Each structure stands twice: as structure tokens, then as C-alpha cells.
Amino acid sequence: MGDCACNSGTKLIYSCSGVADVGEIADRTVRLLRKEGFAQGSCIAAVGAGLPGYVQSAKGADVNITVDGCPVACSRRILENIGITPVSYIVTEMGFKKGSTPVTTEVIEAVCANIREGKMDKPKEKTFVLSGGGCGCGGNC
Amino acid sequence: MFKIEVLGTGCAKCTKLEENARKAADELGVEYEILKVKDVNDIMNYGVMITPALVVNGVVKVAGKVPSVEEVKKMING
Asked: Is B40 designated active site?
């Protein structure tokens, strides 16, 4: 929890926490930004479930920020479903490819930096070679 | 009997919300009790991320805002 709304500029941040690599990156990015005090973390699943405390907190925040792994943008859409237009960041729109981006400190820091700086542009696609693991689909299953 | 809870750590907005809630309940003429919830863990158990917040009969009605007396009346009735 949180801030008392006596402090102006209450910011809540959510991640999609999707199962693919970019979803994990979104999740870890949000956890890092929360820890460093960039924004206060909240749970998008609880908003989606319609739990009143989370829904009302989203409605009462000055800014809601979503970090989604891919353009499906689940967390952004969950907020839109309750009438909120968040500031939306999408990992794949930062040049990271779904299914072939390693979840590393370097990548997470790059995504964090884009969000801290408010960058919404789409840099040239970055490509990575995965060393293996999982089912072999590359995160696309 | 309405159970009205004001969630917050005791700032000016929390005090104002309690005042509005009391006034709204009085004007509606309903039987009620008002509880102040200051413990952060108790507040978190409601899923409230920002305070102040108003809970009526266990349901969070608003968070991060101080609704007017008229708005609180609707929350009590709704």
C-alpha cells in the first residue's frame, strides 16, 4: 500500500505478467520500477477480477501505467474495460521480439529506462539467440 | 445497520472523508457505525492501494478521493 492521496500525483503501475519472455520482462520491469519508487505497484489480475479495492484504487489514481509484453495488451485492455485510459508501454514496441528475447538484467534495465524517460517510440528491432530450454517453441506456444 | 469504514492513516483527507460519511449517514437517517481503519495490513486486505478509502458493508466504494456528502449518500444507498 500506498500512498495517501494527500500526496499529489499518485501513480499505479501494472504488468501483464504474460507467460512468454516479454511478459516476464514486463513483470520484472514493473517490480523493479516499484522497488525504486517510480510508481506504486498494483495487481492487474485483481482489477480484472473486479475486486472493488483494486478497481476503486485504479479509478482514484492520478496516473495508471501498464506494461504489457506484446500488442495484445491485456493489462491496458483490463483498465480500458473499467473506463480508464492508462499510459501504455509495450515491450515488443521497444524493439524486443516475442519468443526470442532473453530475460536478462540488461533487457529489463533497457525497458525500465524507456519507461522512466517516457519513451514511446519504436527503436529498431533487437534480436537475440536463445540458448535453449522450455518446449522449444521460443515462447510462441 | 450500515457498517461504514474509513481507510487511511489519519491525514486531513481521511478526516474530511469521515466527516462527510457521518454527515451523509445522518442526513439519510440510517442506523450506522463508523470505524476508522489505520492499520496498513487491514487496509491492504481490502485491496486498497491508495487512501483515503470508504467501505460500506464490506465493499470498497471509493479510494484516493474524498467524495462529497451527496456522493457518499449514493454510496450508502447503492
From this structure: no
Of A34, A100, A23, nearest to A67 (Cα)? A23
Separation between Cα atoms, residue B52 and residue B46, nearest integer Å: 12
B18 is annotated as an active-site residue: no
- Taking contacts as CB-CB distances below 8 angstroms, the residues of chain A near B39 are none
CATH number at residue B52: 3.40.30.10
Q: How far is CA A10 from CA A120, B29, B37, in A?
A: 21, 35, 21
A14 contacts in B (CB within 8 Å)? Answer: none
Give me the interface pTM, i.e. the ipTM. Answer: 0.88
Number of structural domains (chain B) is: 1
Q: Per residue of chain B (78 residues), what is the pLDDT tens digit? A: 999 999 998 889 999 999 999 999 999 999 999 999 999 999 999 999 999 999 999 999 999 999 999 999 999 997
- Of the candidates A1, A6, A52, which has its C-beta nearest B49's C-beta? A1
Q: Domain range spanning residue B62?
A: 2-77
Inspect the interface and report whether the beta carbons of B50 and A59 lie closer than 8 Å: no
